[in-house]
Amino acid sequence: MEKASRFNGQPGTRQAMSAQALPSLAVLALNIGGWLLVHLGVSYFHTSLPERWFARPEAGAGAGGTVRKAERSKEKRHFGRGAEPKQPDKSGEERFYEQVLFIRSWKDSVPDGSFLFRRGFQKKRLAKRGQAYYQEYMGETLRGEWTHWLSIVPAPLFFIWNEPLYGYLMVGYALAANLPFIAILRYNRLRLRRICGSSRL
Question: Whole-angstrom Cα distance, residue 199 to residue 201?
């Protein structure tokens, strides 16, 4: 009888364990699938937006450009023929990224997911030189920044099917998966803007 009860109890134990495991597996699948949908959906949405939404007037265009040309002429007359104008000083935000976050030591190791989309713009490094390309690059960093900010927004929805602790972990994941990219995009835009002498981005 004892052997029979042990034998009969084993299937029941296994069924109980399976019943407890199924909800956890379902929640895990929802979390993975949910974030995959958020990342791909938000990224695809932003790559389909028109470029003019993120474009900025070229540095040197219009009245502002006339003023900057006059300033460069004054500097050349003051420092001698052929002298280059002095680049603007680094902003407080740019220095914060370099001196506090040490962003230059790790930003190149972060993957660039632009290859996943047909209209993706490679931002890991400058592909060429030229004012038009620099302006396009700065606009694309703005597009990428919007993408990562909006990817954080759905994080509270994960509380619907997660316990509070895991819900907070999902929020933590959203911040950890997006804030480094936002910092890199902003840093690259600030740095390129300073090099170009533009104040419009």
Answer: 6
Q: Burial level of 46, CB count in 10 A (0-12/13-18/19+)? A: buried
Q: What is the CA radius of gyration of the chain?
A: 26
pLDDT in tens, 68-96: 444 444 444 444 444 455 566 788 889 99
Note whether 182 and 189 are within 8 A (CB). Answer: no
Q: Is the CB of residue 113 less than 8 Å from the CB of residue 184? A: no
Q: CA-CA distance, 43 to 36, in Å (whole number)? A: 11
What is the C-alpha separation between 122 and 60, in angstroms, rounded?
Answer: 25
Dmax over CA atoms of the chain, in Å, equals 107
The rounded distance, in Å, linking the Cα atoms of 182 and 28 is: 27
Cβ–Cβ contacts within 10 Å for residue 10, how many?
A: 10
